[in-house]
C-alpha cells in the first residue's frame, strides 16, 4: 500500500513539473528579451542608414569631381580658341548653355543645385583660374593633398577644386622664377598655346592646351619658370599629375 501511495505521489509531482514548464513556455518572450531584440534591431538600422548615407555622399562627391574636370577641359578648349579663359560669370547660370560649343550644359552642385565657384586669377582671366566646390566627405585624402583642410582659403564651404596657373588653395602663391632659369625655346611669355605641368616623377613638361593628360594635373603653369620654381620633386609633390 505504501509503495502504491508513493508511486502516485511521484506521478502527481511529475505532472506538476510538466504543467509548470508548459506554462512557462506558453508565455513566449519576456520583456527583457524583447528589449534586447529591439535594441539589436535599432543598432542594425542605424548602421545601415549611416552606411547608406555615406555611400550617397561619396557618389555626389564623385559627381562634383567629374563636373570640375569637365569644366577644366571646356575652359582649356575655350582658351585655345580665344587666348583667355571665359568670363567670371560664365558658371553662374546652372544648366545653361552659355559655354557652348565647349560644354552643352553648365553643371551645378548635385545636392544644392548651386553653381560651382569660378575664380579667375586676374581681371582679364587670361593668367589662370580656380573652380571650387565642397566635398561632403571631409576625410577624403585629396582635400589634405590640395591644402584645402579645413578649406581652400576662400571661406567655409570650399574644400576641393581644380586650378590652372596657380594652386587650388588660396595661400598657395605661384613662385617667382628662379635665378638663372631661362624659358624653353618653344615658349612665349603670353603662351596661348602651351602650359607646363609636373609629371608623375616631378619633372616639368610642356603640354598643349587641352591635352588629355592635363585632366590628371592638380595645377598647371603658364611659363616653365613657374613650373620649375614650384619644385614638384621635393617641396611640393602634391603638384604632380596623377
Provide structural commentary.
Helices cover 36% and strands 10% of the residues. It is an alpha+beta fold and 242 residues long. It has a domain at 32-173. Strands 1-2-3 form a 3-stranded antiparallel beta sheet, with helices on one face. Strand 4 and strand 5 form a beta hairpin. Mean pLDDT is 79; it is low at 172-192.
Any chance you could write out the topology, listing elements then pairs?
Blueprint: H1 2-26, H2 31-82, E1 117-120, E2 129-133, H3 141-145, E3 160-164, E4 194-198, E5 204-208, H4 224-229
Antiparallel strand pairs: 1-2, 2-3, 4-5
Average pLDDT metric? 79
Radius of gyration: 33 Å
- Intertermini distance: 99 Å
Discrete helix count: 4
Largest sheet geometry:
3 strands, antiparallel
Structural features:
single chain; 242 residues; alpha+beta; three-stranded antiparallel β-sheet; two-stranded antiparallel sheet; 4 helices; 5 strands; elongated
Q: In a few lines, what is going on in this structure?
A:
The protein has 242 residues and is α+β, with helices and mostly antiparallel strands. It has a domain at 32-173.
Amino acid at each position: 500500500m505504501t509503495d502504491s501511495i508513493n508511486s502516485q505521489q511521484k506521478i502527481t509531482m511529475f505532472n506538476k513539473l510538466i504543467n509548470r514548464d508548459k506554462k512557462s513556455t506558453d508565455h513566449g518572450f519576456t520583456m527583457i528579451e524583447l528589449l534586447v531584440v529591439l535594441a539589436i534591431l535599432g543598432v542594425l538600422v542605424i548602421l545601415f542608414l549611416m552606411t547608406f548615407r555615406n555611400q550617397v555622399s561619396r557618389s555626389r562627391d564623385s559627381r562634383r569631381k567629374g563636373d570640375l574636370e569637365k569644366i577644366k577641359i571646356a575652359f582649356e578648349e575655350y582658351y585655345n580658341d580665344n587666348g583667355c579663359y571665359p568670363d567670371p560669370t560664365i558658371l553662374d547660370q546652372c544648366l545653361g548653355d552659355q559655354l557652348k560649343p565647349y560644354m552643352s550644359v553648365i553643371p551645378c552642385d548635385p545636392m544644392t543645385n548651386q553653381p560651382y565657384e569660378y575664380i579667375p586669377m586676374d581681371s582679364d582671366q587670361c593668367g589662370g583660374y580656380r573652380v571650387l566646390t565642397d566635398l561632403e566627405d571631409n576625410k577624403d585624402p585629396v582635400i589634405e593633398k590640395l591644402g584645402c583642410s579645413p578649406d581652400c582659403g576662400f571661406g567655409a564651404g570650399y574644400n576641393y577644386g581644380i586650378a590652372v596657373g596657380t594652386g587650388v588653395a588660396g595661400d598657395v602663391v605661384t613662385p617667382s622664377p628662379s635665378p638663372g632659369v631661362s624659358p624653353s625655346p618653344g615658349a612665349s611669355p603670353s603662351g596661348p598655346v602651351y602650359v607646363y605641368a609636373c609629371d608623375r616623377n616631378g619633372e616639368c613638361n610642356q603640354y598643349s592646351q587641352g591635352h588629355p593628360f592635363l585632366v590628371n594635373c592638380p595645377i598647371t603653369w603658364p611659363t616653365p619658370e613657374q613650373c620649375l620654381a614650384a619644385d614638384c620633386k621635393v617641396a611640393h609633390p602634391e603638384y604632380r599629375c596623377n
